[in-house]
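Lecture 7 notes: from sequence to structure.

We start with a single chain of 234 residues. Read the sequence below before looking at the structure.
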Amino acid sequence: MQPPAPVAWLMVALMAATGLYCLARCRHAPRLSSEERRLDASAGLKGMAMAVMVFPLGVGPAVPEVLWLLVFLPAGLWSLGAALRGSIHRRHHLDHAVGHLAMAYMAVAMAGPMPRAGSMPGMATMRTPAGLPWLTGALLVFFAASAVVSGTRLLGAGAPLAAGARAPLPEPLWAPQLPEACHIVLGLPRRLRLLHRRAAPRRAVLGTARPATPGPPVVTDRLRIPAPGAGGHR
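Now the structure, written as tokens:
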């Protein structure tokens, strides 16, 4: 399902801006480790891909699901491997791994719709998005918990420093809090799409067309057609 055009354009601008910022941070931000730069590159990939997915005029659904799988499956597996290696950024790698794999799941589900129950033979088949309800629900819970954790860390980033500690040099464009903010922003389209996918089977059941019950025949006195064999007019 595509959102209304104004909402879609707003999401495209937000996702593209966030993705471009993450890519710029990966390339130009000073004093970042190679692992942090890879995390920024992963976030930039998600941002640009989601901008394409929500792009109006049918651009997102027109992309073959194989292309999405070729993009997101390797990125998800790499992030999962980085999370399992015991890095200090394990939580971020795990978030990226689940995010990439969820994007692959949504791409496959979006491309493989299921026939709606109760469709009439000989009529155009009404379709609803495919997907596993339990998996969609689990992803929703995970992303909601991840957003809460990121929000907590973002709010706590301005906590007072310990005694004797020196404040870092002010660099507003590359502030260390901004990756958490980008993570929250990039999670918005995923949560919206998962919520839509979660509610789609229920809407399909509620919207199933019921066969119309034939009513009693309508008899009119204005015109009476004589039965075959009846002679003459009255």
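The two ends are 64 Å apart (CA to CA). Keep this in mind for problem set 3.
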